[in-house]
Design brief:
Layout: H1 7-19, E1 27-34, H2 40-52, E2 57-63, H3 66-79, E3 82-89, H4 97-109, E4 114-119, H5 129-144, H6 146-152, E5 158-160, E6 163-164, E7 171-172, E8 177-180, H7 181-185, H8 190-196, H9 208-216, E9 226-228, H10 264-268, H11 275-286, H12 295-310, E10 316-320, H13 326-337, E11 342-346, H14 368-378, E12 384-388, H15 391-394, E13 402-407, H16 412-422, E14 426-434, H17 454-463, E15 468-472, E16 478-482
Parallel strand pairs: 1-2, 1-4, 2-3, 5-9, 10-11, 10-13, 11-12, 13-14
Antiparallel strand pairs: 4-8, 5-8, 6-7, 14-16, 15-16
Helix pairs in contact: 2-3, 8-9, 11-12, 11-13, 12-13, 13-14, 16-17
Length: 483
């Protein structure tokens, strides 16, 4: 333990600061950027906040490619923020360590200053409303209020939101914080701290060394004066996050991309949750009916239906794989808005036999009567037509244009059968959506890599040499547009 982190040193510095409070100076911003699929709108949002509050010089490590690092600079330039990219790391398993390492080194070189630290919270689930609220609450209290926080750090050592008091694992919930450099300088460097803590059990599926140690590094030494902007031991990972107002004076989150001249929103295809579809999910879950998708995924497909309608792309919306009908209900609402017809193709007997590894014949079975009752209760049956039966028996007779195809069929063989018949009927400008997707499948240039599952192997084989653009959306959903 450093001499700085003892009871005697703590009492001495608290007495000195209270008698003669001096805000730390200078202030440096360290911003950790993870370029997961669709990252641009979150980075644009956060850089817009920095510009609004006068923090126009930032130091960042980027988890991504050199191309993505250049894109970060372009977006920063659009907002008038100067970003010094300290390192570009292709391995996302490094998490926040590179940026924290740089912040620690800067603190040791500037012991009278302060560090403001934050990261791309929610980038792994950017359609998740809860994580968006969580990020924006922290942005308000830690980033936007930095001048007030600087004054508070005239006495406090560290500042943030929802401090979790724990002997072994103290941390700010969400890991946005501001800290005096003299406090940070007394901590072990993050890489050394990482190696010293192999005892972490709370990380669940994550390795302590690969993920969660970054949360507790800030409080890894004792005798700290914590200033919590919203209340110690408050939780932000549950519904309590909605009790805090994320509004920043003079800043409008709805006007982050006016005109979008830099293509930020378009690059990430930022789609807001659809209130009507969110309500369907709430009622659906209250009724205790199982579902395989969520309203966030459906909002992206509803947005696709709106886009093909605006572009006057002819054809129906075809859903393959409905199970209990949650996605059918959501898509029928979107189709009714835009004057589209929804056709739902499903066996209504579950998966075929033989199924592929990990699945069983008859799995996800739901009778047509039950599906129809759910559609009647939650959706728009007047725009919906069922096409019951196995795809190999019902789709060979398909003969009408398709504007949007949604597949949630689990099996590569089912995808092969569907695309063999339907792909020739996909209208120019039409869109394909599929479940069974993972962010790691998708490259920054819009292509799909080699390490995928049977569904995406079947899709790539069906495409042959066609040019396409694919992108991960959220949950397990992805979009495919044939050029």
């Amino acid at each position: 333990m450093s001499e700085y982190h003892t009871r005697e040193a703590f009492e001495a510095r608290m007495a000195e600061r209270r008698a003669n409070p001096r805000p730390p100076d200078p202030a440096a911003v360290f911003y950790h950027i993870a370029c997961l699929p669709g990252w641009e709108p979150i980075v644009g949002e956060q850089l817009a906040v920095l510009a609004h509050v006068g923090l126009t010089t930032v130091q960042s490590a980027v988890l991504g490619t050199q191309t993505e690092a250049r894109r970060v600079r372009e977006i920063a330039q659009y907002y008038g923020v100067s970003v010094e990219i300290l390192d570009v790391i292709p391995d996302p398993g490094r998490y926040e360590q590179p940026t924290l390492q740089a912040a620690h080194a800067w603190a040791r070189a500037n012991p009278g200053g302060m560090v403001i630290y934050f990261h791309t919270k929610g980038v792994s689930a950017r359609a998740d409303e809860h994580k968006r609220q969580w990020r924006r609450v922290m942005q308000r209290y830690v980033v936007a209020d930095w001048r007030e926080n600087r004054a508070r750090l005239a006495v406090a050592d560290i500042l943030g939101c929802a401090w979790q008091e724990s002997v072994d694992y103290p941390h700010f919930c969400g890991n946005f914080w501001a800290a005096r450099c003299d406090w940070l300088a007394g901590l072990d460097p993050p890489d050394q701290y990482r190696l010293s803590r192999s005892d972490f059990r709370w990380a669940g599926a994550h390795s302590w060394r690969d993920r969660m140690f970054v949360e507790t590094w800030l409080g890894s030494q004792g005798w700290h004066h914590v200033d919590d902007r919203i209340g110690k031991s408050t939780t932000l990972w549950n519904e309590r996050v909605w009790t805090f107002d994320p509004a920043i004076p003079g800043f409008d989150y709805d006007q982050i991309f006016p005109g979008d001249p830099a293509g930020i929103a378009a690059a990430g295809q930022w789609v807001r949750p659809d209130p009507a579809l969110r309500d369907v999910q709430g009622q659906w879950d209250a009724a205790g009916i199982p579902r395989a998708t969520g309203h966030e995924e459906m909002a992206y497909i509803a947005d696709g239906i709106a886009r093909v309608t605006a572009a006057k792309v002819p054809g129906v919306v075809l859903e393959c794989g409905a199970w209990t009908g949650f996605s059918s209900a959501c898509l029928s609402i979107a189709c009714a808005r835009h004057g589209r017809r929804l056709v739902v193709a499903d066996s209504f007997a579950g998966l075929p036999v033989p199924a592929e590894p990990g699945y069983a014949g008859g799995q996800f079975a739901c009778t047509q009567d039950r599906w129809q009752a759910n559609l009647q209760r939650f959706g728009r049956p007047e725009v919906t037509q069922a096409r019951p039966g196995w795809y190999a028996e019902t789709l060979p007779t398909w003969a009408e244009p398709v504007a949007v195809l949604w597949m949630d069929v689990d099996l590569g063989e089912s995808v092969r059968v569907i695309l063999d018949r339907v792909l020739p009927w996909l209208s120019p400008g039409g869109l394909i959506y599929t479940h069974e997707s993972h962010p790691s499948y998708f490259r920054p240039d819009g292509t799909v890599g080699e390490e995928t599952n049977l569904v995406w192997r079947a899709i790539k084989k069906a495409l042959g040499g066609r040019l396409y653009r694919a992108r991960f959306l959220c949950g397990s959903a992805a979009e495919l547009e044939i050029r």
